[in-house]
Batch of 4 targets.
Target 1
Amino acid sequence: MKEMNANDRSLKIAISSLTFNIAFAIYHIVLGLITISWWLLTLGSYYLILSLVRFVVVHAKAQERFITKFTGWMLIALSLPLVGTVILSVVKDRGYALHMIVMIVMAAYAFTKITLATIKLIKSRRSNSAMLITLRNISFADAFVSIFALQRSMLVSFEGMSETEIIIMNAALGPAVCVIVVLLGIH
């Protein structure tokens, strides 16, 4: 009974996360089209694919084997647009300086995601539910990409780092996030 209530709560949270991810994806894609930013378009496609994965997990009832395999392969596939964002952030698209209030909102968003993903990890640690474990992995992939996007935006929005230092930071954190997403897919 307790396992069922946890699944119901996780399902409700996953549906709200799905809605938010779709809105976030559309925001990035539209803004990317308006500003002609490959970074925003790639990030939008990442969130759109992540939304698709969440949708399948939420709607695939009692097919745990399918859920885990599909999500694993999709997280591995998601590392490809992520690699694209890393390459763009290092080679071409430095990014845009954003207002401090926007940066504070982005930071709150990213840290909320990492906090919620950690809470899901703690709550689902003893669970054998494929859906809970899969949703946890999706949440961590989402959170780590948000942290990378935050770091990238902060580096160009606040003074103090040279162009070379920004490239080094993006080149260090970006591949680490890609590897984490692939490892979450393998898990």
Target 2
Amino acid sequence: MTRELTYTQIGEYLYPNLTLPETEEDAPMGKYGMLRETFLQKHHKGTYNSMLLTGRLTPHLREIDQQAEEQVDKIVSDLMKQNGVNEAMKARDQMGWVQAVNSFTAQAEEMVLAEIVYK
């Protein structure tokens, strides 16, 4: 399948009329999607440029962001169950509960960054 290019003349030069496909969502990108984009820009420039030019970058970043968010939530939930961190502990020792959840979140994010975002 070949597409015929059209051009616009500006001065002596002909510039191709290229446009990116319109995105479905204008919602801001999440934390993990932005981290993935930066990773691709710095370490996989060819892949980044190819995905950007073909319109596959934004859907890819949104998918990575969603997967990472879901995985972090699942890991934190599992760690809370394994360590007995629940609503009873929250009522009994609020600061201890916050410390435990923050620790679990940091552990989960470290795993997700290595397995999903920086892969």
Target 3
Amino acid sequence: MTAANTNTPLSFQPAFTRIQQTEYNDCAFACIAMLAGKTIAEVRQVAIEKFKHPKHGPYWLDEAMISKLLTHYGWVGTVYKEGTGISSLPDTAIGMVEYNAETEIGRHVLFHRFTPQGAKQPVEYIIDPAFWIEEKQQVRTDIKGFPIAWYIGVHPMAKTADKAAK
């Protein structure tokens, strides 16, 4: 796991540790790994063993596979929804950026919004798993107008009374 960027002067500690993608097409695995507190290899192994994801490429993680993996790790994900601006996003989302409408392909980032204790305004930030971006862009709050074309809203799975008692 790669720790959150500590060279960027952030006034808060991100809720999720940045996981850097290992190849060009595993950005969704990286975002799920961030949410789950796992490595990309662990998330990929679950996808292969439990959900029949191909062991070797080519592959693309569709919303069904993303949903299965999120559920496995205790999260609930929506279907892809069209992004209409940062303010319309839920507090946690896997966003698709650099989206090409012709090919219907983009890459994934993790969006998070929270209000620090005692603060009046929420903090919104993006954790970008891409290995080719500058370090100062890896965890960033300068996201006004950030082009999230599509997103999957994410929230923790509700714990049932039976599960909580075990």
Target 4
Amino acid sequence: MTTLLLVRHGQTVWHEGNRYAGSSDVPLTDVGHEQAQALARWAATARLDAVWSSTLQRAIDTAAPAAEAAGLELRTDARLVEVAFGKGEGLTRSEMGVVFPDAVDAFLRSPASVPLPCGERGYDAIARAAAAFREICAQQPDGRVLVVAHSTLLRLVLCALLGIDPESYRQVFPNLRNATVTTLDLADDGAAALDSYNVPITA
């Protein structure tokens, strides 16, 4: 059984207005960097065995101080990047409703199976990220692993691993805040147990 400590990256420059970042490589704000330092203080005593991150810079900049504080090498995996939102990148939901209203309505009704225009299906993102999770766990059996990734990706994968319909991820796992910790136990046979969700860091 591997314990995965799942963290959404720190606040980015597109946080205000809730712009869809997806695969766009947007930087952290000053607040985001402060959140990364708070995560590092937590990581120093969290008994971590490994630290993994998405290859997007906002995730790396959140994870790197934690890896350093824990005395570990930061490892990255492109399969942990956020769902690509295609033509929705950089837009708010309201702006998408003006540009492609029918498409955004379909996406909101079925967010795992219907992508935004030129975007990635949620189910495809689940497949790549779940494979990464399984490989991380195989490398760290019985370990404690920090994984810094992204809001939509993490919520979709949580649903898939826990046997919940991913189409309902927004209702089941609303509002994953920046730099909070979600704890998931993942067994060799794929059985998963959610220990906590969206827990603020205390360090």
